Amino acid sequence: MTEPELTHTEEKSEPKERVAHAFRNLRELVDYVAGKSLPPLTPEDGVLTESLPFPFLAIVGQQEMKLALLLGLINPNVGGILLIGPRGTAKTTAVRSLLDLLPEVERSTCFYGCLPEDIESSGITTVCPDCAKKYGEGQPLTAPDKVRLIELPLNAKLEDVVGGIDERSAAHERMRIRRGILAQADRNLLYIDEINLLGDDIVDSILDAAAQGSYSVRRGSIAATYRSRFVLIGSMNPEEGRLRPQILDRFGLRVIVRGLEEAEERLEAYRRVQAYLANPRQMTGQFSAEMEAAADEIRNAREQVGKVVLPDEIANPAIELVQRMGIDSLRAEITWFESARAYAAADARKEVTIEDLKAVAPMALRLRRSPFMSEYLKGQLGEEKELSSLLGSFGEKPSRNRQTKRTKRLTKKT
Questions:
Q1: Distance between CA 203 and CA 82 in Å, rounded?
Q2: Set 96, 187, 229, 331: catalytic member
Q3: Topology classification of domain 35-103+147-370
Q4: How close are the terminal C-alpha atoms of the chain, in Å?
Q5: Catalytic annotation on 331?
Q6: For 396-410, what is each residue's pLDDT tens digit?
Q7: Residue 20 gets which letter from DSSP?
Q8: Residue 79, by phi and psi: left (phi above 0), alpha (psi -120 to 50) or beta?
Q9: Cα–Cα distance measured from residue 232 to residue 207, given in angstroms and rounded to the nearest whole number
Q10: Where are the beta strands (DSSP E) in 54-210?
């Protein structure tokens, strides 16, 4: 397969814009790598190498799963991603392979996570003494850092998740609450494998923190508030248990991950895994150029997604479709529209089209309806009709016939 040539739809009078790679956008790059074949690799003989993630673009098939994860990187407003499928379908591999694609953000350089906005919103006493001194001297409290992948252990306790008393703060002669996993996940990706097996108290704390973007912890007389602006990624195997409806509703994109159906794809997946196990460094090197290009395209799309518009003539029919499906949650169209904006940004466009909405609709709209709520609301129709009828005549003066009947009844009682 030959690589596509650099082409741009520009006027002849304008000079062609050159890019660092031979792909016009992220979607074209992903499509190309999906059909890339690997040359033979030589196994490493007893050489220890650092742990290298399996290249994201080397995952065979699973187009919807890869697309959902990329949309989450481009636009965190999609509201998280849930991967649902049987064991051995590369769910966890795909999430961990995002490491080489993650963009940069401004991050606190302090152990306690102190940020300039903490001082600006609540005063200098909300940060540690070291950061207060730096702020007073005009030194930065943050530095550029790559987005990280934070994994929540299945055996995590509530104190590990939200935070607890930190003995290290005794050096400052003041007690502070140690940042938990939720605070560490701020502006990162939080991955929860087997989310359907987590305890209710932990899940509730994660959902509340994700919805509010911050959370407060109190331990006795000590309290602290931490930011928790993260993209939540969960995976689960339905054979191991169901997911509570309120948890499912918090995930924007829902991906059904199935096993590869084509024999050729399964064989190619085996060959790539074998190559990775034989020589991780050489195998990842085969995709290094495309991975760097993809990371660059993701950064560009993140910068452009805020400029992508959704015309009313596109949005209104979409809302009508959601209503015809009987979906009550407003998160459906929020996720649908935000993921469509990310899809357009990945294609280097600034306006959402019907085709964009169609491409992401299954991920955004599936598993949104609740049979229980439908039956429950149907059961209330009788009461609603009775209440509406009574309210229709509420406050009206009784007629003369009704007054006469009432007088007769009172006379008989007397």
A1: 14
A2: 331
A3: Rossmann fold (3.40.50)
A4: 103
A5: yes
A6: 666 666 566 666 665
A7: S
A8: left
A9: 9
A10: 81-84, 104-108, 142-146, 149-151, 165-166, 176-177, 189-193
